[in-house]
Design goal:
The relative contact order is 0.07. By secondary structure, the chain is α+β, with helices and mostly antiparallel strands. It has a four-stranded antiparallel β-sheet. The longest helix has 33 residues.
């Protein structure tokens, strides 16, 4: 009996201790009260405060905020419109086709030489493309990367970066390849044809307003039908006959008016 009494008192004491102790939290509460939860709460509060300061600063200084937004928008536009390697090949083939439609006698020598050199490097696999984030560069290499030569595969013999400015062939920025476009300016004008002319005839100036009006008037007059001398004589004779008939009828009408008045 004594032993049963001791066991009963032990269980009662354990039950009272469990009831007095605080209930254990859920898994979410334990995670929230841990070190990782405290770090995440601090990070979220920092970002919240930073966003609030951004909006408050933009409201207080609208000019500065608009300048920053314009710069960010410009950077994003440059990054989004950055041309890639495929666009350069398409532009090169398009320019080569434009020159191919012209006779060799009227092609611009500078445009033709530049495009022909790029096409040759492309066929040899020596045109390389590199992206710099906001712009793209096309440069020439000494060998095709797929070549099995030792000079082409050895990294110690590769072209150093300090020689890259001398090897750049084109710059891609805001959706355009600027050097290629500049070389293709007046691609259908052969300047060698005019080098034997005097200096005052080699250069041309835009026409004045009077010259433009005169050219338009002469162009409109060229649409009119031509009249021969016989047709002009017939027209003059008809006009003379009409004038004589009118002159003969005028005294008769005057006499009739006098009679009616009398």
């Amino acid at each position: 009996m004594a032993s049963l009494r001791v066991v009963r008192r032990t269980f009662c004491a354990a039950a009272e201790a469990a009831a007095a102790a605080p209930a254990a939290g859920s898994r979410w509460e334990r995670l929230k009260n841990s070190k990782a939860g405290a770090w995440c709460r601090g990070l979220v509060s920092d970002y919240k405060e930073a966003c609030r300061e951004i909006f408050v600063g933009a409201w207080e200084r609208p000019v500065k905020a608009s300048v920053y937004m314009s710069l960010l928008g410009g950077v994003w536009a440059c990054f989004y419109t950055r041309p890639d390697e495929s666009s350069f090949e398409a532009a090169l083939l398009d320019r080569s086709g434009q020159l191919g439609l012209l006779s060799p006698w009227i092609r611009n020598a500078t445009s033709d030489a530049h495009v022909q050199s790029l096409v040759k490097l492309r066929n040899e696999g020596r045109l390389h493309h590199v992206s710099l984030g906001l712009l793209s560069l096309v440069y020439r290499a000494d060998y095709d990367p797929d070549t099995s030569l030792y000079e082409a595969q050895c990294s110690n013999l590769s072209v150093p970066w300090r020689e890259l400015p001398q090897r750049i062939l084109d710059v891609g920025f805001v959706g355009h390849w600027w050097i290629l476009d500049s070389k293709m300016k007046d691609y259908d004008v052969n300047e060698d044809e005019f080098k034997h002319l005097p200096a005052h005839m080699q250069g041309t100036s835009p026409p004045s307003v009077q010259e433009v009006e005169r050219s338009e008037r002469l162009h409109k007059e060229s649409w009119l039908a031509l009249t021969t001398e016989e047709e002009e004589e017939k027209e003059t004779n008809v006009v003379d006959i009409k004038q004589e008939s009118v002159s003969e009828e005028s005294p008769v009408k005057a006499l009739e008016q006098d009679q009616t008045q009398a």
